[in-house]
Design a protein that fits this description.
Helix content is 31%, strand content 21%. Strands 7, 8, 9, 10, 11, 14, 15, 16 and 17 form a 9-stranded mixed beta sheet that branches. With 439 residues, the protein is of the alpha+beta class.
Length: 439
């Protein structure tokens, strides 16, 4: 089976099964229920044959040809929807719906009636308190209801609520904010909706004990130099003591900016990464800075010490990133991941041990992007035991990765904002212990 057809295999089988069973049950009804005969089953359920020239459940009598054309249009839309969804259950339900729709369409096309597509649909299931229907009608209803209920049960919210969550910045895909409701989710990607559960989490509270350095502050934006080991915002296993808790102690108004669990946060650094991070103090600033990130207008540069001698003086790594199929706690280069690009320049090289100091510039912002990209080309970050546990990490217990430069447009007056940060003491210590560099 070709790759294009393979994802539809379950849907095709389900649709074919519904179509076959529908036609078999109708054939049985035509032979067993002629001459007005009824078969009583349980309670009000019985079998009684009627010929329906309208829509499902005997609605719209006499509109057979128009309804047939409408069915063809709907089937086409369902096929398109199925091609866009990455949910195999939804695709299966679409197959069931299409099978039911084609079952009734076959009646209109091939049973006697008023011209082509003017035939009557065979209905025979009678509840006595509901219009008589058939297996095809039931398949359409069950398939459609399953899609709707599955969407509500999986997210705990309706489509309208989901749209509002996206607009408020509460939806994140593999750790990155989703800025478009039409963003297609791929298999293996992790979707998180903050505050989307039945029991919303309590918002973080101010904690003046959290330490960090302020590089710049004004009434609209704050630039922080984050130390390694400090988590940016609350999450599983990190409910207290995060940068957000410290920010709330210094800037209480930030509590009203952005998602409740990530107030003021525009982007983040991994726990083990040190360096520059921007924070919004107003809703307007938050919207502007998030927009600049989305439009790739924020200059974020990092220094990374990597294992091995990187041969090219400069280069660009273009490789899609998504959840690792082997370890869901890690990211990896995967064929169906999200687009990711990292440009790098070699600043220095050492022969013994063989390491290279890179300046990396993010052209996209995926979770663990630099760490995954340099590991994928055979030069993992020194100290990064998550993506390379087999080498000497020169005494580091965190990745040698520091956000050294941050440049953006001021959200209020449009002026250019450029900041730099020196390597932290632990990283400078590693460089000091290395021999004289080659370059």
């Amino acid at each position: 089976m070709t790759p294009r057809v393979a994802p539809w295999r379950g849907a095709l089988l389900a649709g074919a099964a519904v179509l076959l069973l529908d036609q078999l049950t109708k054939a049985w009804a035509l032979s067993a229920l002629d001459a007005g005969r009824t078969i009583d089953l349980v309670w009000t359920l019985r079998f009684r044959l009627i010929f329906n020239t309208g829509a499902a459940f005997s609605q719209g009598e006499g509109l057979g040809p128009l309804l047939a054309i409408l069915v063809l249009v709907v089937v086409g839309l369902l096929v398109r929807l199925g091609a866009r969804t990455g949910d195999p259950v939804a695709r299966l339900c679409i197959g069931v719906i299409i099978g039911g729709a084609l079952g009734n369409l076959a009646d209109r096309a091939f049973r006697s009636g008023d011209g082509f597509l003017g035939g009557a649909v065979v209905d025979f299931v009678d509840l006595q308190w509901w219009p008589v229907f058939n297996l095809a009608d039931a398949a359409v209803v069950v398939g459609g209801a399953t899609i709707v209920l599955r969407g509500i049960l999986l997210t705990g919210m309706s489509r309208r609520q989901a749209a509002e969550a996206v607009a408020r910045g509460l939806v994140r895909l593999d750790g990155e904010p989703v800025d478009a409701r039409s963003r297609r989710v791929r298999e293996g990607e992790e979707v998180r909706v903050e505050g989307g559960g039945a029991e919303p989490e309590a918002p973080p509270v101010a904690d003046p004990a959290v330490g960090f350095t302020i590089v710049h502050e004004d009434e609209h934006v704050v630039v922080v130099d984050k130390p390694a080991g400090l988590v940016v915002h609350p999450g599983a296993g990190n409910e207290t003591g995060t940068l957000v808790h410290g920010l709330l102690a210094r800037y209480p108004e930030v509590a009203q900016v952005g998602p409740p669990q990530r107030p003021g946060i525009v982007h983040r650094l991994d726990r083990g990464t040190s360096g520059l991070l921007m924070v919004a103090r107003t809703a307007e600033a938050h919207g502007s800075l998030v927009g600049q990130l989305s439009e790739r207008r924020v200059d974020r540069r990092y220094q990374a010490l990597v294992h091995g001698r990187v041969q090219a003086d400069e280069g660009r790594i273009e490789a899609a990133i998504g959840r690792s199929p082997r370890d869901r706690t890690k990211m990896a280069v995967v064929a169906d991941g999200r687009e990711a690009r990292t440009a790098y320049t070699v600043e220095r090289r050492w022969a013994r041990p063989a390491v290279s100091l890179l300046e990396c510039r993010l052209e996209t912002g995926r979770t663990h992007q630099i760490r995954v990209h340099v590991s994928a080309i055979g030069h993992p970050v020194v100290g990064d035991a998550t993506y390379d546990s087999s080498r000497d990490h020169h005494g580091l217990d965190r990745p040698f990765l520091h956000a050294v430069r941050l440049a953006f447009t001021h959200p209020a007056d449009g002026s250019p904002m450029v900041f730099s940060s020196s390597l932290s003491a632990d990283l400078e210590g590693v460089l000091a212990e290395l021999a004289e560099p080659e370059v």
